[in-house]
Design a protein that fits this description.
The structure is a single chain. This protein is α+β, with helices and mostly antiparallel strands. It folds into 2 domains: 33 residues, no CATH class; 34 residues, no CATH class. The protein is built from 4 helices and 2 strands, in the order βαβααα. The protein has a two-stranded parallel ribbon. The longest helix is centred in the first third of the chain and has 11 residues. The chain is elongated, with a radius of gyration of 13 Å. The two termini are 19 Å apart.
Length: 67
């Protein structure tokens, strides 16, 4: 099975552990690391965009997923 895993998949993150577990089960897993765009945004931008599911950061992550 092919799986696209989207999340904070950096070292020490539980998302990385889950992604690796899916791969160990025989799946073809590709990851999209989402922390960098969120870190560049201000606290207010993060809060608003996460609640609305829209904005520049969300658009950037969606572009990474599509590519």
């Amino acid at each position: 099975m092919k799986i696209l895993f989207i999340g904070e998949i950096g070292p020490g993150q539980t998302a990385l552990i889950r992604m690796r577990a899916l791969a160990r089960l025989g799946n073809e897993v590709r990851g999209v690391h989402t922390i960098e765009p969120w870190q560049r945004a201000s606290w207010v931008q993060r809060q608003v965009q996460r609640r609305l599911g829209r904005g520049a950061v969300v658009d950037e992550i969606n572009d990474k997923v599509i590519s």
